[in-house]
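Supplementary Methods S3. Input chains for the assembly prediction are listed below.
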Amino acid sequence: MWGLEHIWWVPVLPLLGAIANGVAGFRVPKGLVTFFAVGSTGLSFLVALAAFANLLSMDPSVRAYESVLFTWISSGAFTVEAGLQIDPLSAVFMLIVTGVGFLIHVYSVGYMGHEKAYSRYFAYLNLFMFSMLMLVMGNNFLVMFIGWEGVGLCSYLLIGYYYEKDSASDAGKKAFVMNRVGDFGFLLAMMWIFTIFGSLDYTQVFPVAADKLVYGGMAVTGITLLLFLGATGKSAQIPLYTWLPDAMEGPTPVSALIHAATMVTAGVYMVARCAALFNLAPASMVTVALIGAVTAIFAATMGLYQNDIKRVLAYSTVSQLGYMFLACGVGAYVAAVFHVMTHAFFKACLFLGSGSVIHGMSGEQDMRQMGGLKEKMPVTHMTFLISTLAIAGIPIFAGFFSKDEILLSAFMGHTPGHLFYWTLATLAAAVTAFYMFRLYYMTFAGTLRAEDHHVRDHAHESPPVMTVPLVILAALATVGGFLGLPLIEGGHALREFLNPVFTFPSAPEHAHPSATMELTLMAFSVGVALLGIYTARYYYFVKPEAAEEMARREGFIKSAYTLLRNKYYIDELYGALFVRPAVDVSRELLWKLVDVRLIDGFVNFVADASLAASSSARRMQTGLVRQYALVMTLGAVALVWVWIAMSGGR
Amino acid sequence: METMPLLSMVIFLPLAGAALLLLMDRENEGLLRGAALAVTVLDFFISLPLYFGFQSTHEMQFVEKRPWIEAFGANYYVGIDGISLFMVLLTTLTCAVCAAAIWNAVDKHLKEFLISMLVLETGMIGVFCALDFFLFYVFWEVMLIPMYFLIGVWGGPRRVYAAVKFFLYTMSGSVLMLVAIIWLYYNHGQTTGEYTLDILKYHWVALEPAAQLWLFMAFFLAFAIKVPMFPFHTWLPDAHVEAPTAGSVILAGILLKMGTYGFLRFSLPMFPHATDALAWAICALSVVGIIYGALVAMVQDDVKKLVAYSSVSHLGFVTLGIFALNTQAIEGGILQMINHGLSTGALFLIVGVLYERRHTRLISEYGGVTARMPIFAAVFMIATLSSIGLPGLNGFVGEFLVLVGAFQYSPVLTALAATGVIWAAVYMLWMYQRVMFGKITNPKNETLTDLNPREIAYFAPIIAFIFLIGVYPAPFLSKMEPSVTHLVEQSKIAVSQPPPAPPAVSTLPHTPLSGAKAGGQG
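Predicted structure tokens for the full assembly:
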């Protein structure tokens, strides 16, 4: 078996794939492109598995390994190494990224098979894998930041993959810029950390955090809030979430990999990684929990009345990420990571399933044109149903376990306001169950509503290269939750594995709920989910006319409907508040007034005045500027010489 | 270095090349181009031993010193330290790239163009190597004339206005600097009895505070105009828009660095107390420049103007780093000088590629170019990402070091400066989108041809350095570190000692202010 010193291959293999396809991809046959891209990712997954097995074989208390390649930046006292580390937390993310990433690569072979820029797609996708793996495997903040901005770049490139479409390139730019707002926070946090710790290495920061920082002090609160600003950008939380729904302009496998399963969970990884800092900053914990809970319900409501199948899923991603931050905010980091994992399974499956639907429907994304696909696409239907049950939180499916653990942690937590967050999150669970089953019924139940008969006749199941990944992901979405089965003998396997990472003096003790309490809460959340499902079934399956009628009705429902359809007008608000003023002020005030009128006005005035006084003014205008310049310079040079020589230096 | 005057060879080879070109037939354009390219490439290669032979100490190296004008103690005195080393290499690389880039771009007086470029190269390298005030000033002025010609003769429609503006701005700064140099010369002569123009002898000599302040201001103005710092920057957009591609590349890549180099070579070591007293104001001005330059860049309709304003923003990071006065900030600043030369140089070359094909620089004339020029799109994207400081590419390392260093000096200013990373993404990606993405709407863009091998060849070294510095900056940082550490330490020592009290009887010589002005304005 390969030792841990080879973990470099995990990120480097996809990088090699990206370079191969980026440089030579457009000259070689498609088969070779596929080989580079899928092969490198598959190998990377195998190496990751070997590394994981290696890690498991180590004693739980010392499960960590660092590997330094070279000194990246060294300037005076500031040194940062290009180093990787593997510990339980990065191992979990590494496996999710390579495993789900590999499946999505395979799926892409089918989904993107007819694209002209096939090699460009895979070059970007492999580059994404490399960046994401650097993000979760770096041994210091700056390497994480390479990955952090790298995934942002790949996201930008892949959202704008169809660059001839303005909406796609707009969405890509929006994603990059909003992420940069978050990155600004990350950057400042790193500087602050360096100022206090003299290093950006995790091992130089986290173990001594409690000694060097005052609990609840300004420094640790400032650092963690700035870090969290970074997380809100990357993980699409309030206030920086509006890029994610637009990001659906990218190819659907990209939405599955980057905008659902992996990249958007980077913020959760970062907060969990910095648990040692966050635990010292109660104010930041409240912020994280509050933002998470509010985002969970806020985004869920926006998903209620979207008709684009991918947009519904996008809002649901924002909402589910909110759950993860809520978990972090109440100190339940294991639950957060658990939900990252199960979410990766079911959300990737949902997105790939929606891709399969779109593929079968000749590119149609509007659910009002769908319906009745249950018979036409049996595999897609079954896997989709499983994942929908998982996200809705129905027992035995993966999402149930992780979501329930988050709700339980919020209920039992110490963070001020935890019952309020619990209420919001429970409400969001009901809404989630509703809009997900609305999606399910609109897509798969009833009869096919497509107006175009070509689309109707053509609707078909996808090829195995696409359905096999669906089946695997659906299987994971079914059994993946058992890792966190609280009743298994010896406790919660994932918790046992991850706990060493989150064990430090500052970690708050969690109260253990009684079995009765746990079961009551569980029953309650399942009941809430069932209520959501039942309502969706009624309005979108049993009596679809009722939904239409309600949408037509005047009054409160109608205005609420309009508000939701327009996503609370947040995009318009940001436009009016930030984008337009920035452009207007820059153009009219800074450029046209300050630059042109004031500064240049002054310069021109001085120049004109001196030229008017000079006899050479006319000659200048006749174009004899060369002589003028020459005379000027020679005059200056001669002056020094003569002046110094005449004054008799020595 | 005793055996071969390597530095002089690097400095004067282009001048010799210019003399050679003078003898050539102006009709034989191929030969002229080939000769110019050969000279600049050769100069680049003979400048490489400067790097490999450079010892990691703060001492001046490759020093050559010969008496020149003994009447007032001027020597031919050149040498490089860890700061000027990279400026010299940047210059030789940029000039070689330019010689390849202008192949078909010059439509008149090719011979004169190439001669100007070669003379300019000698002047620029000379400025970075000179260790004698007189020599420095000669090179400083020599460099101005060919640059002035490049803009004024081969420029666009408003070239005369732009050239004169460039000249007046630069001259007004230079004249003040000249006055300050003369004052220093006399002051030194009268207080020590030694009339010398040796720049290094003026380093870390404590002058009384009031004198330091005035001298500092005089030098500052000359360099701030050159950088250019807000609000002395308005010559830059005009000069860039009017200048031919090679002119813009050299202007942005090298000439602007003379200002920041000047701060490092003169302002910091000669006037440490004044530097210390005014650092906060200059850092604040730098931050204003970062934000202002970025915002104004955002709303430009002309690609070149946009890149020009972005230079104001980028150079703001450099000056912020220099005046934050610690190792990380200054090393970051120097690295940013190199980075800006590479990325902005590349961007101006990119504009040149488009301009050669379409003869317009208006963003609105383009759109959808990627479909016709995929290789160009990749090069453009890399330059764009380098410019916005993407980690893994060169810009990030410099910017980050500047910010880390500046944070020790002032967290608030640094926070404001760091908003630059957001603005840079806004204006660069917006521009890229409007030029490269979308459908081709202008039929003139249908026939665009992708980069040819010559064009790929001159972008290649720049791209290689963009990646190299981003992934492995050690070869750069390690060579500059001793010089920077020395500078920072000496500054600290100087500031910790109280400056001498003003002398009872003023030894201030009569300064020929009016005379200098008259000379300066012909």
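The CA atoms of residues 91 and 254 of chain B lie 6 Å apart. Residues 505-522 of chain B have pLDDT under 50 and may be disordered.
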